[in-house]
Design goal:
The complex is a heterodimer of chains A (158) and B (149).
Chain A lengths: L9 E3 L5 E8 L4 E2 L6 H13 L12 E2 L2 E4 L5 E5 L7 E5 L42 H23 L1
Antiparallel strand pairs in A: 1-2, 2-7, 3-4, 5-6
Chain B lengths: L40 E3 L2 E4 L2 E7 L2 H8 L9 E3 L5 E4 L20 H5 L9 H10 L12 E3 L1
Antiparallel strand pairs in B: 1-6, 2-3, 4-5
The chains are: A alpha+beta (158), B alpha+beta (149).
């Protein structure tokens, strides 16, 4: 098994809301098990504080572009990077604060920090055509959109 | 032959689907017994200073897994905070491995996994919120938990 997001997979909140969907991924090397190094976590806290959040709000993170595989006995094996130029496209479903830290992976035996290009563009039409027809995904999408629509309505009534 | 005298300071039976919490001091041991062989025991740990909860120190699944390079918890596993601070160590285990990946179900996440008819069913996230409130813990403090047994 591997705790990694793949193309078509949603990034869910603890309440099962779809915050984002991975709509394209040319890396395939990601990790949701190991979290951050001390230095990475300090920078993540800084990003949180800039948005009025605090250390209690810094939840488990996902590491993009560095892979980890899990053996049958549960042991972790670092699989490293897919090489330069790999990209992940995330479709954002509800307004979010996206906090990125360009940091070493905690299991990387030879971390070499290099630059990262972060692009954002309008993709409203993509929101209307789900990239995944799995029933769980569609229910998650329905729940998210219902909650978001209700939140906007109650906001308008204030 | 030497025998160790155990001084039991607390022995409580937790009802099915019910939450429980207490302060466990450094040097004390906590034993969890699955009385009927059917339980998943969702567990979180928070640091305390005196009788006050330290909101900055709590169990971290990622901190624990990365430090031991294994996703399973068993004898010898040190349950750690995100910065690596050891909170508890598993010193004995009749089971073999315990999960710290799957987390707790919630009324909000159950409908997507099992269908909308499950929205009103019991959920562990509710237990964490209700029990955490006794210690001044809120939704921000509920993180990925251990599922013992």
């Amino acid at each position: 098994m591997a705790g990694i997001p793949r193309e078509g997979h949603p990034l869910l909140s603890d309440q099962g809301r779809v915050l984002a969907t991975v709509v394209a991924d040319s890396s395939g090397r990601h990790d949701a098990l190991c979290g951050m190094t001390d230095a990475g976590r300090a920078k993540m806290l800084l990003a949180a504080i800039k948005h009025g959040l605090g250390i209690r709000d810094v939840a488990p993170s996902v590491s993009l572009f560095k892979g980890v595989r899990v053996g049958d006995d549960g042991t972790l094996g670092f699989t490293g990077s897919a090489g330069p130029g790999a990209a992940v496209d995330l479709l954002i479903h509800v307004p979010v604060v996206a906090a990125l830290v360009n940091s070493a992976h905690p299991l990387d035996p030879d971390p070499a920090l290099t630059g990262l290009d972060v692009l954002a563009w309008r993709a409203t039409e993509q929101l209307t055509a789900p990239v995944n027809d799995d029933p769980e995904y569609l229910r998650a999408l329905f729940n998210t959109e219902s909650t978001w629509a209700a939140a906007q309505t109650s906001e308008a009534l204030k | 032959m030497t025998t160790t005298e155990l001084t039991i300071v607390s022995d409580e039976v937790v009802d099915a689907c019910a939450p429980w919490s207490a302060i466990v001091r450094a040097g004390q041991s906590l034993q969890i017994i699955d009385l009927h062989g059917n339980q998943a025991v969702d567990t979180l740990l928070y640091g305390v200073s005196g009788d006050q909860v330290d909101h900055t120190l709590r169990y971290s699944a990622q901190g624990t897994v990365a430090a031991q390079l294994n996703i399973f918890l068993s004898t010898g596993s040190v349950l750690r905070a995100a910065d690596g601070t050891p909170l508890m160590t598993i010193v004995a285990d009749d089971v073999g491995n315990h999960d710290t990946i799957a987390g707790a179900c919630s009324k909000e996440s159950n409908p997507l996994r099992y269908g909308h008819h499950t929205v009103h069913q019991h959920a562990c996230a509710e237990n964490f919120l209700a029990e955490g409130a006794k210690w001044g813990l809120g939704k921000r403090d509920i993180v990925s938990n251990i599922n013992f047994l």
